[in-house]
Design goal:
Layout: H1 6-20, H2 28-32, H3 36-44, H4 59-75, H5 81-101, H6 106-116, H7 130-141, E1 158-159, H8 160-173, E2 181-185, E3 192-194, E4 198-202, E5 206-207, H9 209-231, H10 247-260, H11 266-283, H12 288-297, H13 302-313, H14 329-344, H15 350-355, H16 366-374, H17 386-389, H18 391-401, H19 409-414, H20 417-424
Parallel strand pairs: 2-4
Antiparallel strand pairs: 1-5, 3-4
Helix pairs in contact: 1-5, 4-5, 5-6, 5-16, 7-11, 9-10, 10-14, 11-13, 12-13
Length: 426
Amino acid sequence: MDLPSDETIRERLAWVDGLAKSDVKVRVLEAIGWPREVEERFFEGGASSLPEVSYDVDRDALRDRVKELDRAEKSIEGDDPITEWLRSSVASMRDASRLVLALGTAEFSRLSKELYGGPRTRFHGGNERNIDLAHHVIERLRPHGRDEAVDEGDVETLDAEALASSLRARLAREYPSMAIAVLVDPGATAKVVAGASRVRVRADATFSPWEADALWHHEVETHSLSGQNGAAQPALGFLRTGGPRSTRTQEGLAVFSELHHHCASIERLQRLANRVLLVDMAEQGASFLDLYRHLVARGAPEREAYLDAQRVCRGGLVTGGAPFTKDTVYLAGLLDVQAFLSAVVREGFRDEMELLVSGRLALEDLTALVHLRRRGILQRPRYIPAWLRRWRTLVPEFAFLSFLDAIALQRVQSQYEALIHAATET
């Protein structure tokens, strides 16, 4: 395999970085967000009518942007890993523009499924689907229910100001420190909205202590951290935003961080799994109201039911049949990341592990980044998440778990059937 010369690589990287800095800014999640006024009108109307949502985008500029990036992708010739990665990076920029261009139509949902997958997308050509994983998680967690050892009334929740103060304090203790502003925002359309340099906390939101901890690891130590690492790369600044193709890996990595730090609660995993089912319901024709009422009937607080139904319907059709499928990537991405770590950590590839947090990227990008690191073009990431800084405790965990690959767990579980039966007797 012949790689391009360093000079050619640097020229191509500078060109792709220039494309990423276009005046046509495409931030998918910002573009599809519903204004807070939509939420207030919904509840003022007794939560009985479909929300009325419109999307204000410059479609002419987006069409020109799609054409520009189409031409750019086709002009990158070569079949080596670096060239293929650059083509994919340009294609991801184009796909983000295509997605925003299709806002409010059934085409938006079709593109969403093409880019993120859907509930019935299969894992790597096998028979298992995203929805099968969601059902498995729900069934495994169902017996545990509420933790009777914890009296929910005794758990002191954090309001928005307390959470913001907690995040600021944690940021102040980090070294090197990340320049991230934490704001309480009355207009935030989710409980927490995080970017590379700013975290907005919804003013009326409350958080359990473990939820606050999970938000730190998910939003700040994964999403903000990877965005800042990408922006700090002298030759690869476009790694600050990975586009739709990086979403599955980035969300999987964020949920892995929650699990690794023991702050992903039963309720959190159940919610991620249930969102896959909500997307499937919407694909089968359920409207926003159907999803909202389904969640309320299952005991969800009204505002949380609204936010979860909104996540599924934003960008697509509130009448049903055309959802935003991004919520199917969280568990699927976690599975991908866990499999990757199982293969790489136990082999001791710490440098390759650092590549994973050098920007917002997909797992399939890592081969190209290995070559760029060897040539001195890709620098080490400035910020390292806590789970990776603790390398000497991470390696033993995966070294031990790797032996499970050789054990038939079904056979081991059969030894405890009497215990399981006794524990579940009524």
